[in-house]
Amino acid sequence: MSMDRHTLQAVLEEQERHRDGVERRREERDAQRDAERIAHMTAMADKMAAMCLAIQNLVVAQAQVPVAAAGPVRPMPKIRLQKMTSEDDPEAFLTTFERVATVSGWPAECWAAQLAPCLTGEAQAAYRALSNVAAEDYPQVKTAILRRLNITPETHCRRFRTYKRPEGTRPRIAAQQLWDHLTRWLRPTERTTQQIMESVGVDQFLEVLEPETRAWVARHSPETMDKAVELAEAFEDALLRLDPSPAPAIPVKHRPSPAHPKTAVRPSVFPVPLSASPPKWRPRLAPSWARENPWTPPSGPRDKQPSPTAPPSPTCFRCHEVGHIARFCPVAMECDVALRCPAAEGEA
Fold it and tell me: Is the pTM of this model over 0.70?
């Protein structure tokens, strides 16, 4: 079927309009896409410019602050640690070490390893006795060293109570030493006011107790007054149960127990006074001069009488003379000479 001229022309025009519409829409999409791309690139450029400006300002600030405030940076000098000697105060040595470690900026977990080569004697033995884990912890190492050297708050308490100013020491030095013992005993930076008051009260309470009770309470190291009172009362109640009527002349720790007769205390042997009766001599074993001249106690003033321990002069049992014994008797010696001389003449 053939198509007339007018119809064919209308179809061609319709196709031309369709192609124009498609081309126009493509151009619009491309234009919109280009606009969005340009806007995104513009925004990114603005952000990059802002970041560059911020970085530049930060670099300038970091470069200017050290020069204006602290000046040129100097290298830290290397610190050489000294070994602990027997003349050093252990607490002062450890305090100095802690300050050096803090100024040097050493990590706390490395303090024990840095301290170990500086220890000698008992301090080194205390460090060696620790386990591998405890030897890496500085607080445990410090506690072990002070405990091995018998340096405790109780030690400083006794030193504070019994302190005497050395001859030639200035008052300021004596006050500093007293204050040092007081602070190490009470530890005001580690404890509260109530705990400090409890320590002072317990120490004074121990002073008013009996020696045996004081030793028992102090052995348990009470930290409060109530605990100290409880220990003291329990100890004295135990003594009353053991002996309802205690004898004040016999110490508590030496009292005889009925259940254990072998542990009964034997009476002490005291020296015989001068006014006592003379010792009884055994005639079977005593020489003749002791039987004939018995010893009598002095009757006059003590300072004018001879010593009661001085024995009388011996008496010879051959010639009965006073002043020598039979071995050195002159009569016996003359008889021996007379007997030997005729024998010698007969041989001649």
Answer: no
